[in-house]
Design a protein that fits this description.
The chain has 134 residues and is α+β, with helices and mostly antiparallel strands. The chain has two helices and seven strands. It is globular, with a radius of gyration of 14 Å.
């Protein structure tokens, strides 16, 4: 079984985060997920994040934070996933190499298919809330 690294990312705007409904011809079809992609051989995590954001959403992340890490066992590989919250980017978010995009309220995080995605979103929401309170 292959071990691969993945970057998972979600832009944040106001009190919402960006998710996607996976297309029918992809892994986890019809599921609400966070955009993600594999880290290529020799590529650093941040390089993969920048490349994947450009490929999938046509944005360049400017400010981002690693908020969670998780391992996911798939049929043919084990994914070591690094979750990034993107709080500032250049460019306009566009649907490119992803399913249908949807801005979701943090209160809707339980609609995400994977528990690891729900945990990542909850982690950043808690940090945002703590920062606002202080």
């Amino acid at each position: 079984m292959n071990n691969v690294k993945c970057v998972v990312f979600f832009p944040i705007r106001d009190e919402t985060f960006l998710a996607e409904i996976r297309p029918n011809n992809d892994t986890d079809p019809g599921r609400m997920m966070l955009p993600a992609g594999h880290v290529e051989s020799g590529e650093k995590l941040e390089e993969a994040l920048i490349r994947e954001c450009k490929e999938e959403l046509d944005i360049l992340p400017v400010e981002y934070t690693l908020v969670h890490r998780n391992t996911r066992n798939m049929q043919d590989e084990v994914q070591d996933c690094y979750f990034y919250a993107i709080t500032k980017w250049s460019g306009e978010v566009k649907q490119k190499d992803v399913g249908q995009l949807k801005w979701m309220s943090f209160s809707d995080e339980n609609n995400l298919y994977l528990e690891s995605s729900r945990t990542a979103v909850a982690n950043i929401h808690k940090k945002i809330h703590e920062h606002i309170i202080k």
